[in-house]
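Good morning N.,

You mentioned wanting to compare the apo and holo forms, so I went ahead and generated the holo version with farnesyl diphosphate. This is what I fed in:
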Amino acid sequence: MPTRAASTTNRPPAIPRHVAVIMDGNGRWARERGLPRTEGHRRGAEAVQRSVEACVELGVEFLTLYAFSSENWKRPKSEIQALMTLLDRFLRTKLDDMLKQNVRFQAIGRLTDLPGSCQESLHRAIERTATNTGLTLILALSYGGREEIVDGVKSLLRHVQEGHLDPAMITPEVFSKHLYTRYWPDPDLLIRTSGELRLSNFLLWQLSYAEFWVTAKLWPDFGKADLEEAFAAFARRERRFGGI
Ligand code: FPP
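and this is what came out, ligand included:
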């Protein structure tokens, strides 16, 4: 179980503490080059690695990446299989880098939907990096915001039925302790690539006060300079959280 222990990263004030990313456009990147979609995903995995390294360097504390949504199960079997193989390979080959970079790895979503080999790689990466104190990298896998809220409601109801919770005491803060993300602060900045202006069922509860930054760049082309551009835009925003 992750704890809320303070991170040891030295984050300058203009750097968002928690960055969430909707990594979109792998398919279009491949199509534009006459390549199979799976090649777009392979290059997308390289962009993941670049972004993790950049976040470590820039002092981000939490990075949540939307890697596979609940809706992505509707894709052709061959594409799902390719994505799962990429994920498995990523977790196996990048574990040493994560250990060297002091990255703590985490995952959210209905993880038991994933193939057994991916679940094993996930659990190994989570366990091996559990005591790291730098960037927390959270992969959203078989993740849907509505599904997470439904799972949170079920968890609340269980606590009420078992007599641990008085319904009159339920507040947004109490509810958020029943979400997959209960250990971490909400994202400050949401980045979406490939120009779409949609949330796509990502962190529906947690993004309530996040700043949005959208780029036309496709995910496989995304890198440190784009992150820096997003952070510069974030630093210019005035966040009032509903106040004046
Ligand atoms: C969107 O592109 C991206 C995804 C569905 C999954 C994201 C996966 C990766 C970045 C690669 C593997 C990840 C890891 C962590 C190893 P799309 O296929 O929807 O693109 P399109 O909208 O252009 O078709």
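The two ends are 38 Å apart (CA to CA).

Happy to go through it together on a call whenever suits you.

Best,
F.
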